[in-house]
Design brief:
The structure holds two protein chains of two kinds. Chain A is mostly helical. Chain A contains six helices and no strands. Chain A has one domain: Fumarate reductase/succinate dehydrogenase, transmembrane subunit (3 helical TM bundles of succinate and fumarate reductases, Up-down Bundle), CATH 1.20.1300. Chain B is of the alpha+beta class. Chain B has two domains: about 100 residues, Ubiquitin-like (UB roll) (Roll); about 130 residues, Fumarate Reductase Iron-sulfur Protein, Chain B, domain 2, CATH 1.10.1060.10. A five-stranded mixed β-sheet of chain B has the order 2-1-5-3-4. In chain B, strands 6-7 form a two-stranded antiparallel sheet. In chain B, helix 3 runs parallel beside helix 6 and helix 6 packs across helix 9. Chain B starts with a strand and ends with a helix. Chains A and B meet through helix 1 and helix 3 of A and helix 9 of B. The structure holds iron/sulfur cluster (2 copies) and FE2/S2 (inorganic) cluster.
Chain lengths: ~130, ~240
């Protein structure tokens, strides 16, 4: 219906579901990491041993991918709320408002680059 | 004497909007906000606002009363001012102001139109009428009562940011009113039209809509039902 170009044809429902699923994964990961830190305050060797386990690598990768997609959907929403012509015109004046599309795309591109970098970097750390 | 501060803007004569401070003699009565406006208009006929039924039925006098959207005709001063001594009247937020308290509702109606607020039924029409069981009819309670006053949509931050793409609480309440109607056969198409990232999913459950609706309706709940229907139809 609207803007299937900028949202890559996603449906609102799949975005919404994605936020829920990735949210649960991130919550679970946080609980596990916090649990490990609180219960056994591991030294470097134990820490390394933990991250040598395949399940931990997989779980961490899932968490990294979750952060990336969670953040992308969230930042995309925020940018389409605030970095639009009428909002920028009211807040920062018509000159800035006229550049809304450019600013929004720049912000989305920068977000995408940063998130992609995090994913690649994370994979390198896990399997490097 | 009642202190009133009222938003004034006449695009033909004013460079920008301003707040006009007045004193109104209410004879100590707990009038409705609309009665106060009528007293003001009797003194200054240029004061502009919409009104018709003066009993909470037509939905034309939605405005921002001491910071909260409501219908002036059914809002008593005591409730509007909550013990304070000043009545502050502004137009509904988020829509362009035409003059004083009168806003341009085009965007609001455009969103209403989008949900096709009428029964769609492609089966042959029966001789007399399409019947509903009492249970089926009950599903429309809390939905059909909406008077399209726009108090809810103009209190919703998501509607402020995306009034052209987010249908808003009022339109979505009506969307669900037709999704829930046993006589409507267009459910699949209606759902398909709503499944983009803006129409429904810009609702973040802030519930401003629920807290202002003068008819006590619950758009957030209706939006939840739509989301569940989308979920069910997709899985
Ligand atoms: S619950 Fe949804 S529709 Fe209602 S005010 Fe909040 S964001 Fe708007
Ligand atoms: S849901 Fe309530 S506040 Fe919203 S338009 Fe209908 S009657 Fe007005
Ligand atoms: S005048 Fe009709 S609802 Fe207030």
């Amino acid at each position: 219906m609207v803007t299937s170009v900028t949202n890559f044809g996603r449906s609102g429902l799949s975005d919404w579901l994605m936020q829920r699923v990735t949210g649960v994964i991130l919550l679970a990961y946080t609980v596990v990491i916090a649990g490990v830190l609180l219960l056994c305050s591991p030294d470097y060797a134990q820490w390394k041993a933990l991250f040598d386990e395949t399940w931990m690598k997989t779980f961490t990768l899932a968490a990294i991918l979750s952060i990336a997609s969670h953040a992308w959907i969230g930042l995309w929403s925020v940018s389409t709320d605030y970095l639009v012509r009428h909002v920028l015109t009211i807040k920062l004046g018509p000159a800035v408002g006229a550049q809304a599309n450019l600013l929004r795309w720049a912000f989305q591109a920068a977000s995408a680059v940063v998130l992609f970098t995090y994913v690649v970097w994370g994979i390198q750390i896990l399997w490097g | 004497m009642l202190n009133v501060s009222i938003y004034r803007y006449n695009p033909e004569t004013d460079a920008e909007p301003y707040m006009q401070d007045l004193e109104v003699d209410t004879a100590g009565k707990d009038l409705m906000v609309l009665d106060v406006l009528e007293l003001i208009k009797a003194e200054d006929t240029t004061t502009s606002y919409r009104r018709s039924c003066r009993e909470g039925v037509c939905g034309s006098d939605g405005m921002n009363i001491n910071g909260k959207n409501g219908l002036a005709c059914i809002m008593p001063l005591s409730e509007a001012m909550k013990g304070g001594n000043k009545l502050v009247l502004r137009p509904l937020p988020g829509l362009p102001v035409i003059r004083d308290l009168v806003v341009d509702m085009s965007l609001f109606y455009k969103q209403y139109e989008k949900v096709k607020p009428f029964l769609i039924n492609d089966t042959p029409a029966p001789a007399i009428e399409r019947l509903q069981s009492p249970e089926e009819r009950e599903k429309l309670d809390g939905l059909y009562e909406c008077i399209l006053c726009a108090c809810c949509s103009t209190a919703c931050p998501s509607f402020w940011w995306n009034p052209d793409r987010f249908i808003g609480p009022s339109g979505l309440l009506q969307a669900y009113r037709f999704l829930a109607d046993s006589r409507d056969t267009s459910t699949e198409q209606r759902l398909a039209d709503l499944d983009d990232p803006f129409s429904v999913f810009r609702c973040h459950g802030i519930q401003n809509c629920v807290s202002v609706c003068p008819k006590g309706l619950n758009p957030t709940k209706a939006i939840g039902h739509i989301r569940n229907m989308l979920l069910t139809s997709a899985t």
